[in-house]
Amino acid sequence: MTTRDLKTKSIDYRKKLLKYIKHANAGHTGGSLSCVDILNVLYNHVLGVTPENFSGRDRNHYIQSKGHSVEALYVVLADVGFFPESDLETLCQYQSHYVGHPTRKVNGIEHNSGALGHALSYCVGVALAEKKDGRNNNVFTLLGDGELAEGSNWEALLTASHYKLDNLVAILDYNKLQITGWVKDVCATEPLDEKFTAFGASVRHVDGHDFEALTEVLNSVPFEKGKPNVIIAHTIKGKGVSFIENNYKWHHHVPTDAEFEQAIRELDQVVKNI
Amino acid sequence: MNKLELGKANLEVFSETLIELAKNDKDIVVVTSDSRGSGKLTPFGQQFPDQIVEVGIAEQNLVGIAAGLAASGKKVFAVSPACFLTARSFEQIKNDVCYSDHPVNLIGISAGVSYGALGSTHHSLHDLAALRAVNNLSIIVPADNFETRESIRLAAELPSPVYIRFGKRAIEHVHKPDDKLELGKANIIHEGGDVAFIATGETVVQSLMAAQQLEQKGVSCRVVSMHTIKPLDIETLAQTATKCKALITVEEHMVNGGLGEACAGYLMLTGICVPFKIVGIPDEYTVPGKQLDIFKHYGMTAEKLADAALQLIS
Ligand SMILES: Cc1ncc(C[n+]2csc(CCOP(=O)(O)OP(=O)(O)O)c2C)c(N)n1
Ligand SMILES: [Mg+2]
Question: How far apart, in whole angstroms, are the C-alpha atoms of residue B178 and residue B31?
């Protein structure tokens, strides 16, 4: 798939996730727009996880720690064939398994998440098992930057370093916003580089909306033999829609009709210029 | 049938009451974990910037810090979604608050299945059972705006730990303005003798509406708001079980270890025998849906409660 294809896909994903959030009248708009390019590259260029190999264990793994951005995950999983996209018309409805956070009732999802600060420990377990069984699969997770306040993340990183889990890849959706506002005003986590390094990780930075850079960095793990990998992906919360970008109020705001139409217009404009 | 008047969300009344209290009391301190907006506490933060502490998305930290503040004389309200506050921070609640006896007010917002289709990570259907098993903790589940305001006022002055949980949707009034709320003393909000509903939290209004429907069919009901789950008002419970011909408990909680089992256990011990039914969320993968979808699915709406009552006395 070319960079151009990925770009076009991402616009399509953005339009769809907005559509289904609007339809469900619920969802995490800002965080989904922030991470959808990362998911695009992961599923189309890195993971090699398919509906055919998903039920086995001998494959790469992706577990989304920031489960609230499930709408981005749903549209990508539908696109790569895990379920028909029309299933998403039932998002958040009575008796639909497409709820507002990832669950294993949905094909393609390996672990339930939604309470922040859980998935990294789970991933350490999976990565350990991979090593014990002598396989070469990688375990990817996506963390929010506000989520880093949960101490469990740091416990997990300690263990990952202790067991030299260089098959573990924590991607940070570094959009600098959480619900209340800027992360730096809520709970100062900087300097992140030094913290991750001190916890034994090998750290790389990437522009989380640059498809080539993402493809390169995600395909070059392990960065250092014997060290867990941390990728600080510089992202924009709400990326792609001018009035959603960098605005904390859009964490779980659902677009009105007018906002939705304007968002689609803006995204269509971007497609024309690709 | 009297139509019940719709009030505000209990969540809103909670935040207004805190502002009222903080105006005259510098010792009131609110602690949040990126939950200021969800707790409707933005106005509080603006008015009393020195009386709010933000810890980031770290609920264990939240409760530990709250314990330290309470030990130092602050009247602390630790506010976070009930699901995270009572599951993630359970050990801090058990050891740092209750065992160490520091009078923290633990406020579980958007409790029960208020978060609906966000799924089970966001539901608190375990909290009453889990916290009933912790010594030295009062548990209050207010039914309406009145009970919420009164329980927050009461908590501010209580010298021991308390957990209060409520939902986020606007809720009908079930009380009259001159009612009183006492810790551990249930309120009888509707009188009758055929069936008694003993309910707690947002299921009280459903029970009251069920009672109104049943009255039209000639069945008279007592409705008890059992706002305090611990200490349980065993006097009102025993008196109700003796007076009424059948008893139904209703709670927005899993049936394991909640209000219903607390009542059943007590009645069994005292030898009071009465047709009895527990209505709540069963021990299964909770059906996905919005709060009222889930209520309907598990027979917790007025119509379904009325049916259950008829069945129990037939
Ligand atoms: C344990 C836990 N506490 C609180 C929440 C509520 N919550 C959902 S998203 C969120 C903010 C997340 O911010 P961040 O990690 O920066 O994610 P992003 O900006 O990518 O949306 C919070 C507090 C939760 N889901 N889990
Ligand atoms: Mg963020």
Answer: 32
**B44-97 pLDDT per residue, tens:** 999 999 999 999 999 999 999 999 999 999 999 999 999 999 999 999 999 999
Report the CATH fold assignment for A3-273.
Answer: Rossmann fold (3.40.50)
The domain spans of chain B are 6-172, 187-313
Among B31, B33, B34, the residue to mutate for chain A (most A Cβ within 10 A): B34
Ligand 2 centre and the CA of A170: distance in Å? 15
Ligand 1 binding pocket (C-beta < 6 A) is A 30-31, 34, 66, 68, 114-117, 144-147, 173, 175, 177-179, 237, 251; B 34, 57, 59, 84, 88
CATH fold of B187-313, please?
A: Rossmann fold (3.40.50)
Name the CATH topology of B6-172. Rossmann fold (3.40.50)
How large is the average pLDDT for residues A132-136?
94
> What are the helix (H) ranges across A85-182?
119-132, 151-162
Residue ranges of domains in chain A: 3-273
Q: Report the atom number in ligand 1 closest to the C-alpha of B122.
A: 25
Three-state DSSP class for B196? strand
For tokens 């970008």, name the residue: A245
Helix and strand numbers (H, E) in chain A are 9, 5
pLDDT higher at B178 or A59: A59
Contact B57 A180 (CB under 8 A): no
Per-residue model confidence (pLDDT) at position B3? 87
Whether the full predicted model's pTM is greater than 0.95, yes or no, is: yes
